[in-house]
């Protein structure tokens, strides 16, 4: 059977170990442990040394570059997990390591000269009160784009926290790196949230606008009134100028003009509708006829003087009594009559065909007489506002 069909031995990594010292570091430690199980170890200075040349290292760790091997082995040394006696791997092309388990060699197998032990991590110890990150640690932290000022600010709190806990560690540098990264991520999250809140507040302020002459309700607002509320489109259009004028004079700013306009028109429409007489039988105007109170409410909403409207009643009744015409709603007729004369008085009335208009008669807006128009035409007539 071909050896290529035999599967390689799987690499086992402890999740808790990886969380403690790093995934790459846990992988290398597992590989070194496997190699040490079948390679002869050299006992010196109370340690069992594993010596690997470049061929053995590449065979055991084919997925790492020389730079990666040097970096990861150095991290293991800095964390106090291994002792490293060889020079940097990119220079020496070999690894001479010992597991820092605190056990001395029972019987040295050879008697070579002592090897220099590079153990910057040393044994586990308490953090010094004057501990400071070294240049190499500062360089590692800076690779995460963390400002130096931020790094320095975390040192006093880091020292105080671990001295109060009274715990020991093989590498305070590794703990500090993890602590700074965690705090920097929290800092960035808070800054992003603060910026988002400030931006939303700015956008909300930008939406606060003053009423202006060119303001018009949005398409959605018109749809709500005309399509859903069943209000005459002409009636809605008539309400725009008075709404704009009212809020311009008040000088207020807001971001809900469409909502205000919808409520305004709905109130007007309710009163206007209640002012209509629902009796569909046409009848002659009574001699003592008076407009209903709802008529004056509608006129007030349209900013038309009540006194002005009352002055039109006598002339209105006289004219229609003499004309002997029959209508189902004299309130509607009167509303149109007052609107027309109010607009005329304020230089807004349309030009009639003949240029003359009887005081009690409706204006001639088209080729047909006002008397010939239907109730629907009267309700939707808005020529007084032109």
Features of the shown structure:
alpha+beta, four-stranded antiparallel sheet, disordered N terminus, 7% strand, 8 strands, 386 residues, two-stranded antiparallel sheet, rod-shaped, 53% helix
Give a concise summary:
This protein is of the alpha+beta class and 386 residues long. It is built from 16 helices and eight strands.
Structure description:
With 386 residues, the chain is of the alpha+beta class. It is built from 16 helices and eight strands. The strands form three sheets. The chain has a four-stranded antiparallel sheet with strand order 1-2-4-3. A two-stranded antiparallel sheet has the order 5-6. A two-stranded antiparallel ribbon has the order 7-8. Helix 1 (15-21) packs across helix 2 (23-38) and helix 7 packs across helix 8 (172-207). The termini are far apart.
Largest beta-sheet characterization: 4 strands, antiparallel
Low-confidence stretches: 1-6, 102-122, 348-376
Spatial order of strands in the largest sheet: 1-2-4-3
Q: Work out the radius of gyration.
A: 46 Å
Tell how many strands the DSSP assignment holds.
Answer: 8
Report the order of strands and helices: HHEEHHEHEHHHEHHEHEHHHEHH
Strand content: 5-15%
Characterize the overall form: rod-shaped
Percent helix range: 40-55%
Describe how the helices and strands are arranged.
Elements: H1 15-21, H2 23-38, E1 42-44, E2 47-53, H3 54-60, H4 66-78, E3 82-84, H5 89-92, E4 94-99, H6 135-142, H7 148-165, H8 172-207, E5 209-210, H9 219-228, H10 233-250, E6 253-254, H11 257-275, E7 283-284, H12 293-301, H13 306-311, H14 313-323, E8 326-327, H15 330-345, H16 375-380
Antiparallel strand pairs: 1-2, 2-4, 3-4, 5-6, 7-8
């Amino acid at each position: 059977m071909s050896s290529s069909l035999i599967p390689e031995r799987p690499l086992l990594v402890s999740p808790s170990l990886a969380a403690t010292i790093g995934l790459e570091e846990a992988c290398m430690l597992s590989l070194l442990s496997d190699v040490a199980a079948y390679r002869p170890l050299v006992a010196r200075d109370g340690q069992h040394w594993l010596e690997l040349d470049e061929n053995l290292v590449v065979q055991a760790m084919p997925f790492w570059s020389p730079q990666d091997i040097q970096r990861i082995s150095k991290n293991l040394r800095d964390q106090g997990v291994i002792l490293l006696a060889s020079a940097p791997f990119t220079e020496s092309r070999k690894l001479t390591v010992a597991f820092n388990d605190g056990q001395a060699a029972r019987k040295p197998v050879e008697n070579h000269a002592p090897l220099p032990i590079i153990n910057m991590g040393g044994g586990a110890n308490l953090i010094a009160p004057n501990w400071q990150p070294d240049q190499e640690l500062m360089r590692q932290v800076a690779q995460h784009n963390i400002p130096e000022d931020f790094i320095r600010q975390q040192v006093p709190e880091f020292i105080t926290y671990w001295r109060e806990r009274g715990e020991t560690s093989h590498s305070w540098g590794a703990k500090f790196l993890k602590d700074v990264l965690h705090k920097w991520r929290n800092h960035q999250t808070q800054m992003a949230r603060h910026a988002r809140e400030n931006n939303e507040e700015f956008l909300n302020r930008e939406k606060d606008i003053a009423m202006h002459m060119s303001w018009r309700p949005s398409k959605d607002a018109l749809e709500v009134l005309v399509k859903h509320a069943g209000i005459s489109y002409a009636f809605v259009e008539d309400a725009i100028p008075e709404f704009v004028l009212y809020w311009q004079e008040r000088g207020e700013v807001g971001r809900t003009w469409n909502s205000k306009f919808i409520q305004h028109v709905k109130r007007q429409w309710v009163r206007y509708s209640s002012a209509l007489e629902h009796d569909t039988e046409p009848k002659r105007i009574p001699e003592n006829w008076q407009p209903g109170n709802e008529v004056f409410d509608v006129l007030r909403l349209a900013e038309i003087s009540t006194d002005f409207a009352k002055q039109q009643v006598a002339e209105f009744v006289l004219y229609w009594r003499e004309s002997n015409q029959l209508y189902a709603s004299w309130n509607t007729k009167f509303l149109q009559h007052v609107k027309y004369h109010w607009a005329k008085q304020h230089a807004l009335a349309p030009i009639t065909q003949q240029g003359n208009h009887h005081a009690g008669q409706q204006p001639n807006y088209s080729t047909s007489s006002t008397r010939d128009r239907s109730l629907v035409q009267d309700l939707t007539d808005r020529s007084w506002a032109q």
